[in-house]
Amino acid sequence: MAGDVAPARAEMAVVRAGLRDLGLRQASVWVGMFAAYVDGFAGDHAAAGRALDEAEAVATEIGDRWFLSTIRVDRAHVVLAGGDVTAAAGAVAAIEEIAAPHDAEWRLKRHAARGKLAALEGDPARAGAELRAAAAIADAGEMLTFRADVHRDLALVTAPGGAEHRAALATARTLYARKEHVTGLRALRERFGAEEPRR
Predict the structure, then answer these.
(1) Which residue range(s) make up the domain with 117?
(2) DSSP code, position 23
(3) Span 89-115, mean pLDDT?
């Protein structure tokens, strides 16, 4: 998050190899999920997908459905980032196969995935509705990064220059800054440039 993505990926590789050697399977699932986040920060969605595949294989072996539900919803976001509508639709549908309706993270990510898929499919009204639902869940808690991500995605699907767009962009920037999430702030600048974030 501090912007040092290359050394972060190298450290993750060392940790994952060590956990495999030690046979610490549950811990390896956690770290595989974190590695996917880091690969995503680097823009390497293929690597993120591979990390989630490995994590899912272990989670399936140990029978941990909570891990599986989180991995499925995270994979949908990785596939969505690739922009392939057909693959994304399949990944979003797969979220429902292992549900975690009492988990706020899963619920907000599920709505966000549906919203991003709707945007890819050319349905901005549905995209906005799903991302507003995701933001409502996120804003009820303290998950700063997930909240920032959802507001960033809402800014992407709302009309540029409109009040909702400006508010979403301002919220995303504020939350990334509170988290000291340099990589998130950098991605916002690359996507939105110097666009005025005032409400």
Answers:
(1) 100-199
(2) T
(3) 96
